[in-house]
Request: fold
Amino acid sequence: MSLVSLKPAVSPFVGTRLRFAPATSRLRRAAGRIGLGLPAIVAFALLWEAAPRLGWINALFFPPLSRVLAALGEMIANGTIAEHIGISLQRAALGFLLAVVVAVPLGLAMGRYQVFERMSDFLVQTLRNTSQFALMPVFILVLGIGEASKVAITFYAAVFFLLVNTIVGVKSVDPLLLKAARSMGTSDWDLFRKVILPSAVPSIVAGARLGVKTSLFSVIAAEMLAAQSGIGFLIQHSSLMLETDRMYAGILTLTATGLVLNYLLVALEARATRWKSSDGAGPA
Reply:
C-alpha cells in the first residue's frame, strides 16, 4: 500500500491538510439550548417565588427565591461565598490534577501494551466498581478529617474516568496511521508523542469533563460529612441551623459553578477535537 492512499490519515508526517470542523460549533449549539431553555427557567423561578408565598409549601423549609437571592447577595458582599467555593474548588482541582498525573500515563500504557492491560485490568475494574461515596469513611479513618482525605476522595472519583477514556482513545488510533509511522522508522517514544497521544486527546478531554464534575460533587459530599469549610460544609451547616435561605444560596452557587465548569470544558473539548474532519467523524 502506498503512502499516497494514507495521506488523509497521516497528516502529521506528510503535511496533508485536513478539513477542520469549526471549533465553535458545539458552543453555538450549547448557546442555542440555553436560549430554548430560558422560558422553562423563568417559569421555574416564578413558581419558586410564588409557592411559599401562597402557602403551597412551608416557607421555613423552602423560602421564596427573592429571599434566597437576597441571602446570596449578602454572602457575596461579605466574601462568605467566595471563601467557601474557593476552598472547594481548590480541593477538587488538586485531586483532579493528581488523577491526570496518574491516569493518563497509565492509560497510555494499558491501551498500548496488551500484556500490561491484562495484568492490571482486573484490579482496575475492581477499584472502578467500588463507589467513592462508600469509601468516604475509609478515607476519613485512614487520612483524618483534614485536607488529605478530601483530596484523596476527589482523586479516586476522577481517576477512573480519565483512565478508561485514555485507554479507549489509545485503542481508537487508526492502525494505518501506526503502520505508516512505523514504516518511517518512528521510535516508540515519538510514536507516543506524535501519533498516539494527539489522537487520544479528544477521548482524554471527554474523560476529563466527567472527571472534573465528579471531583467537585465528591468533595462537596466529603465536606458535608467532615469539614469546617467549603461550599458543602456551608450547605450542611445552614441546613442544620435552619438557615434555609443560606442553604439554597449555597446550592445555587454550586449549580452556577457546575454550569460554568461544564461550558468551559465544552469549549476545551471543542478545541481539542478541532482537527477532526467535518465528515462526521467527531462525536456529536
Summary: Confidence is low (pLDDT under 50) at residues 1-23, 277-284. The two ends are 32 Å apart (CA to CA). The chain has one domain: 22-272.
